[in-house]
Structure formats: structure tokens, C-alpha cells
UniProtKB/TrEMBL annotation:
Family: Belongs to the band 7/mec-2 family. Flotillin subfamily.
Annotated InterPro entries: Band_7, Band_7/SPFH_dom_sf, Flotillin_fam
Domain Band stretches: 12-187
Name recorded for this polypeptide: Flotillin
GO CC annotation: plasma membrane
Any coiled-coil regions, as ranges: 172-203
Keyword terms, alphabetized: Coiled coil, Membrane
Pfam families, alphabetized: Band_7 (PF01145)
GO biological process: protein localization to plasma membrane
Superkingdom of the source species: Bacteria
GO molecular function: protease binding
Localization per record: Membrane
Length: 375
């Protein structure tokens, strides 16, 4: 847009030709743009970026010893309007002069501060030196609109005088002694480590030899076993085959025995048991029939003898009638004779009954006239 100007982020735009706030001779614009009317207004830019100044100065200490001191200062224009205004009025046309003037200011303060210190203090308290220089220059730098961010003392030497080296000699000697001791300890440790390494190498070699010997022995043993493994394995296999064949033959014999038992022995035992049962049954039947027949024939025999008893008594009486018998007591005597005849008949009956008891049916039946069928 015509007449509209915008400063860079690290710049301040100074607009002159119009009214400004306060006693400032121009208007300060940062962080945004503004209209600049051509011919009536003029815009200029002041850097707000970080700048650097170097100092290389010969300084005399409190002891009168000259030291060469090198330092670096980091500074910039302050961010507030007053600092920008002060810096612009001094450096706007020649902004490079800010580094030159800053170096001169710090060189003066550096000489002043070092002149109040000894070499030992400067060497040992370098940070204290930097802090005192910063504090001494802060007010002066602020008046010209500059602010210091850092001061770094880069080097300090006595220009070959040897004072600093002499000052550091005891420390160097102690350091050298410690270094020598450390080196000796390191050498000793290295030698011990070397000896330990050699011992381990020798032990490793010995162990390796032992392992190799053991390995060779195991290999030889394995080869010997492998050489014997073929015949042994074949013999073992044949023995196992024979054992299996024997076991199969035994199983086959057991199976055949079971088949014979099932096919021959069991049927024979069953038939023998059947015949025995039938024989026992027939014998029991014959016994029962014999007992029944004997009982039937005995009854029939007793009946027949009883039926024949009168005839027996009568024949006995007939034999008495032809005999010469005298009866003394009359009728009583005759009764006694009759009773005797009867008793004699009964005795004959018992004799016949007991005498024929041991004969079977076929022997008794023809004698006593009993039919064979028991009728």
C-alpha cells in the first residue's frame, strides 16, 4: 500500500517530520507498520539485533605485571523507546560505531578493574573480573541506549614474562607428579593385565589342548562303537526277530489249544456228562422199579402164603391122622393139638417168607405162581 511502511522484527522504524510523544524528535514504531506520507514524513530504521565487540588490551595488575587480556562483549540496543531514541541519536547514521565505542568503553573498565587485582586473583577469579567489568560499564552503556547481554574473558597472558607459568609451576609439578604416579600405576596395571592376559592365554591353550584330546578320544571311541555298531545291531535285530517269532509261535500254540478245547474237549466233556446223567437217571429208574417190584411181589407172596396156610395145616393134620397119637386130657388135649398144628403152620409160613426174601422176582414168581408183570 502506498506510503505504508513495516519494520523488520529486529528493527525499529523512526518516523520524523511530524509530532512525537514527549520530547522525542521522532516517532518510534516497532512490531507493526505505519503510514509515512511522502514528502512530508521520513522513515529511518535502527537495528535491534545482537552485536559483538572484541577487546584486546594490555593491562597492568596491582603487582605491576603487564597482562594481555582478550574479551568479547555481546550487546544490543535496548527495547524501550528511551534506549532506541538515545542509540538512534548517536549511531543511526553510523551504526557500526556501536561496536567500536562499546569496545573502548569496556577496555577502559577492564584496565581499571585489573589494576586493582593481583595476577593470582585474575587467574583464579576470572568470573569475578567479568562481573565487576559488567557492573562498572552498565550505567555508561545505558546512557547511550545499549544493553550488555554477556562478557566473556577469552585469554590472559603475561606476554612471555613467565610469571603465570611460575605461578602454576607448583601446581604443574604436583600435576606432573600425580600424572607420573598415575602413569606408573597405569603401567603396572597394564603389566599386570598383560601378565593376566598371558596367563589366561596359557590356560586357554592348555584347556584347548585338553578339550582337543578329549574330543579326539571321544571321536575315536565313537568311531570304534560305530565300527561295531553294524554287527551288533544286526545280531540284536536277529535276536529280536527270533524273540518275536517265538512269541508268535507261543501265541499260535495257545490259540490252537484254545481252539482244540473249544472244538474237541468241551464237546466230549459235554457228551460224557450227558451220558453220565442218562446213566444215573436209568440206574435210579431201575432202582425205583426194582424197589417197586420187590414191594409188589412181597405183598403178593405174603398173600399167597396166607392163602395156602389152611392147606398146610390141613396136610399136617392129615399126617397126624395116620399117626398113632394118644390124647390124654380129652377135649383140652385135642385143643392143644389143634393149636399146635396152627402154630406149626405159622412157623412154616414165617420160614417160607424169610427163606424166599433174597430171591428176585424171576426166581420167586415160578415157585409161588406169581406172574412176571406183578399181576
Amino acid at each position: 500500500m502506498l506510503g505504508y511502511r513495516v519494520p523488520a522484527p529486529d528493527e525499529a522504524m523512526l518516523i520524523s517530520g511530524g509530532k512525537a510523544k514527549g520530547n522525542a524528535p521522532f516517532r518510534v514504531v516497532t512490531g507493526h507498520g505505519a503510514f509515512v506520507i511522502p514528502f512530508f514524513r521520513k522513515a529511518a530504521f535502527l537495528t535491534l539485533a545482537m552485536c559483538e565487540a572484541e577487546v584486546a588490551e594490555k593491562c597492568v595488575t596491582q603487582q605491576g605485571i603487564t597482562l594481555n587480556v582478550r574479551a568479547v562483549i555481546a550487546f544490543k540496543v535496548g527495547n524501550d523507546t528511551e534506549s532506541i531514541t538515545a542509540a538512534a541519536q548517536r549511531f543511526l547514521s553510523e551504526q557500526d560505531q556501536m561496536s567500536v565505542l562499546t569496545g573502548r568503553i569496556f577496555a577502559g573498565h577492564l584496565r581499571s578493574i585489573i589494576g586493582s587485582m593481583t595476577v593470582e586473583q585474575i587467574i583464579r577469579e576470572r568470573q569475578k573480573l567479568a562481573t565487576e567489568v559488567l557492573d562498572g560499564s552498565k550505567e555508561e552503556m545505558a546512557r547511550i541506549g545499549l544493553s550488555v547481554d554477556a562478557l566473556q574473558i577469552q585469554s590472559i597472558d603475561d606476554d612471555g614474562l613467565g610469571y603465570i607459568n611460575a605461578m602454576s609451576a607448583p601446581h604443574n609439578a604436583a600435576i606432573q607428579q600425580q600424572a607420573q604416579i598415575a602413569q606408573a600405576q597405569a603401567n603396572q596395571a597394564s603389566a599386570e593385565a598383560e601378565q593376566e592376559s598371558q596367563r589366561k592365554q596359557a590356560e586357554f591353550a592348555r584347556q584347548t589342548a585338553i578339550v582337543k584330546a578329549q574330543y579326539k578320544a571321544e571321536v575315536d571311541k565313537a568311531q570304534a562303537q560305530a565300527a561295531q555298531a553294524g554287527p551288533l545291531a544286526e545280531a540284536q535285530a536277529q535276536r529280536e526277530v527270533l524273540e518275536m517269532r517265538t512269541e508268535l509261535a507261543e501265541r499260535a500254540a495257545e490259540l490252537r489249544q484254545q481252539e482244540l478245547v473249544a472244538e474237541v474237549v468241551k464237546p466230549a466233556e459235554a457228551e460224557a456228562e450227558r451220558v453220565r446223567i442218562l446213566a444215573v437217571a436209568d440206574a435210579e429208574k431201575m432202582k425205583i422199579q426194582a424197589e417197586a417190584a420187590a414191594s409188589h411181589n412181597r405183598v403178593a407172596l405174603d398173600r399167597m402164603l396166607i392163602d395156602q396156610l389152611p392147606d398146610i395145616v390141613e396136610k399136617a393134620a392129615l399126617g397126624l391122622s395116620s399117626a398113632n397119637l394118644t390124647v390124654l386130657n380129652g377135649a383140652d388135649g385135642l385143643g392143644q393139638v389143634a393149636s399146635g398144628l396152627v402154630s406149626q403152620g405159622l412157623a412154616i409160613f414165617d420160614t417160607l417168607r424169610n427163606g424166599v426174601a433174597h430171591y428176585d422176582e424171576e426166581e420167586i414168581a415160578p415157585v409161588v405162581g406169581i406172574p412176571k408183570d406183578g399181576a
